[in-house]
Design a protein that fits this description.
The protein is mostly beta strands. The protein has no helices and three strands.
């Protein structure tokens, strides 16, 4: 299983053994290690990978996942 963890005020942590990262042309990136982090701040010199630049550029993003969605009510029966 692959898990992508949104880190508070930081990168996206990608965990899993069978992860393949490709660009818009389908060319595969060489993933240096597992797990790995993807840049969210836009300042990394190693894009798409995180190099820790978010720590010094003032990047903030602390949105949490919403709670579970309520299942819709079934339509009334006639």
């Amino acid at each position: 299983m692959i898990t992508i963890k949104v880190r508070q005020n930081g990168s996206l942590l990608v965990e899993g053994d069978e992860v393949k990262l490709v660009d818009w042309n389908g060319a595969e990136y060489i993933v240096p290690k597992h797990p790995f982090a993807l840049c969210r701040c836009g300042q990394s010199k190693e894009k798409p990978f995180c190099d820790g630049s978010h720590k010094t550029c003032g990047f903030t993003a602390d949105e949490a996942a919403p709670g579970p969605k309520k299942m819709p009510e079934p339509p009334p029966t006639a």
